[in-house]
Design brief:
Blueprint lengths: L4 E2 L7 E2 L17 E3 L6 E3 L8 E6 L6 H11 L2 E6 L10 H15 L5 E3 L4 H10 L4 E7 L8 E7 L5
Parallel strand pairs: 5-6, 5-7, 7-8
Antiparallel strand pairs: 1-2, 3-4, 8-9
Helix pairs in contact: 2-3
């Protein structure tokens, strides 16, 4: 049996060994495997799913180890973070800049659970509107820290369970 790896598109699914497309257990027709939606290869699935991760797109300061540990504690899962550098030129129209950020985020991590919003609220609000109801990971500055230190304090979820 070919050893499966986690899909590059969705870290919470097994990936097709031929093309990397996520494989969905619910597509199993009782024969112990699934047909890949992308390349149409039949792939046997192991009994267990890959470990589920809490996936975060970070539009803010790089997360320090203390924040990553806090995120794991709050989510109860291993954390996978993609950081998108944000530089908003306030002299140019904001809408196009935010669209570019959202497109870059969706390209780097098409499936995600939460975002760390950018510090500039006029960019954070439209960016949130463009994304699909992610959890918001709240990061606060540690009072009196020099150089400035930012740590995760909570996860706010807007999803209907």
């Amino acid at each position: 049996m070919t050893e499966l790896k986690v899909s590059k598109l969705d870290q919470n699914k097994w990936g097709c060994p031929r093309c990397g497309w996520p494989l969905f257990r619910e597509d199993d027709m009782g024969d112990g495997g699934v047909t890949c939606h992308s390349c149409k290869a039949w792939v046997p699935l192991p009994d267990e799913d890959p470990p589920v991760k809490y996936r975060v797109i970070n539009f803010s300061h790089p997360l320090i180890q203390e924040s990553l540990t806090k995120l794991e504690e709050l989510s109860g899962k291993e954390v996978d973070v993609v950081t998108i550098k944000v530089h908003v030129d306030t002299e140019k129209p904001l809408a196009e800049q935010v669209k570019v950020l959202a497109e870059e985020a969706e390209e780097k991590m098409p499936f995600y659970d939460g975002i760390v919003p950018p510090g500039l609220s006029s960019a954070a609000v439209p960016l949130f509107a463009l994304l699909d109801k992610p959890d918001v990971v709240v990061v606060n500055k540690v009072a009196g820290s020099l150089p400035p230190k930012h740590v995760v304090s909570e996860i706010i979820s807007f999803r209907e369970e």
